[in-house]
Fold this sequence. Notes:
Layout: E1 2-6, H1 13-21, E2 36-42, H2 46-55, E3 59-61, E4 64-70, H3 79-87, E5 94-100, H4 116-147, H5 154-168, H6 180-187, E6 197-202, H7 216-219, E7 227-232, H8 234-241, H9 248-255, H10 261-273, E8 275-280, E9 285-292, H11 297-304, H12 306-310, E10 312-319, H13 320-326, H14 329-334, E11 339-341, E12 351-357
Parallel strand pairs: 1-4, 1-5, 3-9, 5-6, 6-7
Antiparallel strand pairs: 2-4, 8-9, 10-11, 10-12
Helix pairs in contact: 1-8, 4-5
Amino acid sequence: MELGITGLPLTGKTTLFSALTGEQRATGGFSSDKPSHLAVVKVPDERLDVLTAMFRPKKTVPADVKYVDVAGIVKGSAKDSRSGVLSALRTVDALIHVVRAFESDSVPAPEGGIDPVRDVGDLDLEMVLADLEVAERRLDRLEKELKAGRKEGEREWALLRSCRDALESEMPLRELDLTDEEEKLLRGFQFLTRKPIVVVVNVGEDQLGNESYDSAELNSLATRAKTELIVLCAEAEMQISRLDAVDQPAFLEALGIAEPAVRRLVKVSYRLLDLISFFTVGPDEVRAWTVRSGALAPEAAGVIHTDLERGFIRAEVITYDDLVECGSLAHAREKGLLRLEGKAYEVRDGDILNIRFSV
C-alpha cells in the first residue's frame, strides 16, 4: 500500500511525513531537487505482538505501508511545475491531503488567511484539471480511431465522455458509480480524482482533544465517496514519534490524543482501500500480510509467494481470536478449531493461514 501526502505549501504535510516515518525532513519547502520523498513504515498491529509472544519466532515481520511526500502545490504556478508534482501521485493507491487549520507566529499564514475549506477546493480543482487534460487527450485519439472505422474503442470513448462531463462540472471521479468492468477500463489512466482520499485537518496544539473540526462544511467531506476526514496536530505527532515507547502513553494522555497518527491513518487507509490483514505463524517467523477484502485463499497464498498460488491445494485456517483463546495451535487442533478450506474460501481479517501446496 502506497499513500501520497500532498497539500498546499506551509500546511504541515512534511511535518506529518516526519511524524509517520520517523524521518526528519526540512519543512517549509523542498530543499531537494527530487519531486518526492519515499519512506516505508511498519504497520502497527497489536495482534502481531500477541502472536510473537505466543510463538517466540526468530523474527517478526509486520506489514508495511509506503508514504510519498511530494512538494507543495503552489496555486497559479507554472503548468510544468504542477504537472511534475501531480505525476508523482499518479502511482499511489490513495491520497492524504493535508490542510492547514493552525495559526503560527513562525509559519506565515497563506494569502487570504487560514481557510481549510478553500484549500480543499483549490487542490481538488488542480487535480480535476490534471485529470481533464488526460481524459481529453485520450478522447482525441479515440475519436480519430472511430472516424477511421476502428470501433473497438467505442466503450472506452463513451466512458471517458462521462468522465469528461463530470470533470468539467468539477466533480471528482471518485464520486462516479462505476461497474467493475468500467473500473478496469479506467485503471491505466491513474486518474488522481478517482483515488480514495484522506483529508487531514492539521490543527494547533490548543485545538487538540476534538475528533472533529469546527466546520460543518469541512466535516461534510467525510460523507463523500471514498473520502475520510481526520483531525490531528502534525507538530505534536512529530514530538510523539520521537519519544520512547514507555514515554508515549503519558504524553498522549496529556494532549488528549487517543492514539498516534500512524495508527489512525493506517486504520483509515485500510478501510478506504478495502484491505484486510492475515497472518502466518511459526517458530521461524510470525508475519502480517495485506490483501484486499474478499480475496480468495489462492490469492492470499500468492501474496506470500507465487508458487503457493500456482500449486495451491488447501489452506489450514484458524481465526486470531480462536487461537488466542486456545493459547497454542496444538490445543486449537485438539478442540477442532483448525479447519481446511479450498480455493473458494474468502479470507477474513485476522485469519491465520498455513498453505498446503504442490508444484
